[in-house]
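Help needed: design a sequence for this.
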């Protein structure tokens, strides 16, 4: 609302409650409590809060762009290095969440393309369909059949078994 009201254009109706004008010589103790509260509690807290806000405005932190350093894979950890095991597991979980989000984004792009194109979706959205097929195949190759309780160790074993099967198939083709 603007600060300069036109009181003549918008007249305020008179109040029905009479204004009490105290004419006693006894001071009101509430005024003393309010003043003491303001100087003892409110002023220091407000001062500290303003100082914190001023400091934070100079140093902006964006937590949603947090970058984790890459840690060694589980296959690179030494035997008995439990800290390395833990870090590799955490890295694997972050990678799995990122891959899930990639699949979801590609799926949403395909759905948007289908919605936009309507009956011509098979011709005009072929590139998005191919990309979704590639992304889901890569995700299934890496994380498929691990279940909810999958871990970096089970994923590594799955990759090891797949590599052994590919080597065996390549040897059988050569013979």
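Sure. Designed sequence:
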């Amino acid at each position: 609302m603007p600060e300069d009201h036109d009181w003549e254009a918008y007249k305020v109706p008179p109040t029905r409650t009479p204004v009490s004008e105290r004419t006693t010589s006894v001071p009101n103790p509430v005024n003393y409590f309010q003043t003491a509260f303001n100087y003892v509690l409110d002023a220091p807290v407000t001062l500290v809060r303003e100082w914190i806000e001023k400091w934070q405005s100079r140093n902006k932190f964006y937590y949603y762009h947090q970058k984790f350093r890459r840690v060694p894979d589980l296959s690179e950890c030494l035997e008995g290095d439990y800290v390395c095991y833990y870090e590799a597991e955490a890295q694997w979980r972050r990678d799995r969440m990122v891959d899930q989000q990639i699949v979801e984004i590609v799926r949403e792009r395909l759905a948007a393309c289908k919605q936009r194109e309507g009956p011509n979706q098979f011709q005009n959205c072929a590139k998005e369909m191919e990309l979704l097929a590639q992304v889901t195949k890569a995700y299934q190759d890496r994380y498929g059949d691990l279940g909810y309780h999958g871990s970096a160790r089970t994923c590594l074993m799955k990759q090891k078994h797949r590599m052994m099967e590919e080597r065996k198939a390549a040897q059988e083709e050569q013979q």
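The longest helix spans residues 82-117.
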